[in-house]
Write a structure and sequence with these properties.
Jelly Rolls, 2 domains, globular, Arc Repressor Mutant, subunit A, single chain, 7-stranded antiparallel beta sheet, 280 residues
């Protein structure tokens, strides 16, 4: 099967930064102001975790806790030994509307006892975290990135999410249409053309896509184009070039489509608010 994640990861670069390894006995608070997600890997002990969306829960077995989008939450080691943890911040294009982060739940908790896909990476992560080898930080960061990639694969193959782009990519027919849009956002895709790519009738494709992905194909394509454009703008590409690259005939046509999805905000205003400088 065609690589279902590469185009998404090319657009939204995955970056991890490990900031804690070891025992946690007190409470650690996290907010959403830094604009990153978080990954907490529980090696041993008992961890209490809470947020305003998923509530509070106690985890007492090795588990992966992933917040794919910026979210206020807290974690606390319980008992006399606390919790043995590796924690990292995760950047995955949530601010640019990455459909991967949108398709995941606000908090994902994955017990690790039966997960063979992550076992090798986990062993390496814990060895690097607690052995003190040279180049430790770089190794931990890259291993955390690999773990997120493997988690995304797991979400597709194990049916962890029922709706969204990961559910669509797990569907062999819908994956063909999604791969086509992801790989060539500037092409003049039509509903008929995408249905042909997927090997389905026009009506069946439209209904099935909406049911599985959660949005009509045309809306998904428009959102994907805007997301790609945001990434290109933040990388310093001129607005006119970006508009053409994502399928708009002119910068003004792109600006109108952008504003329609951002409460009237122009691309340059959005870019300035994000902290980047417009390129002309």
């Amino acid at each position: 099967m065609h690589d279902r994640l590469s185009a998404l990861l090319d657009c939204f670069r995955l970056r991890a930064r490990v900031f804690h390894t070891g025992s946690l006995c007190d409470t650690a608070d996290f907010d959403a102001h830094d604009g990153v997600g978080h990954l907490h890997v529980l090696r041993g002990g008992t961890l209490r975790i809470g947020d305003s969306v998923a509530g509070e829960t106690t985890i007492d077995e090795p588990s992966l806790i992933f917040y794919p989008r910026p979210a206020p939450h807290w974690i606390r080691g319980e008992g006399t030994q606390g919790a043995d943890l590796v924690c990292s911040s995760i950047e995955l294009g949530a601010d640019a509307g990455n459909p991967l982060t949108r398709s995941l739940p606000a908090r994902l908790v994955l017990p690790l006892r039966d997960n063979t896909l992550l076992r090798g990476t986990l062993e390496l992560l814990f060895e690097e975290a607690f052995a003190g080898h040279c180049g430790r930080q770089a190794a931990l960061d890259r291993l955390s990135e690999l773990m997120i990639l493997q988690l995304l694969r797991h979400c597709m193959t194990a049916g962890v999410v029922a709706q969204g782009v990961l559910a669509g990519l797990a569907d062999p027919r819908l994956a063909k249409a999604l791969n086509a849009m992801h790989g060539a956002p500037g092409d003049a895709w039509t509903l008929d053309g995408l249905a042909r790519v997927s090997g389905m009738s026009r009506a069946r494709f439209a209904a099935h896509f909406h049911h599985v992905v959660g949005t009509p194909p045309g809306d998904y394509l428009a959102d994907w184009r805007i997301s790609v454009a945001k990434t290109l703008l933040k990388r310093g590409q001129p607005l006119k070039n970006v508009a053409l690259d994502v399928g708009y005939a002119s910068a003004s046509a792109f600006a109108r489509a952008f504003a329609a999805r951002h409460a009237g905000t122009s691309p340059t205003a959005w870019l300035s608010a994000s902290g980047a400088s417009p390129s002309h």
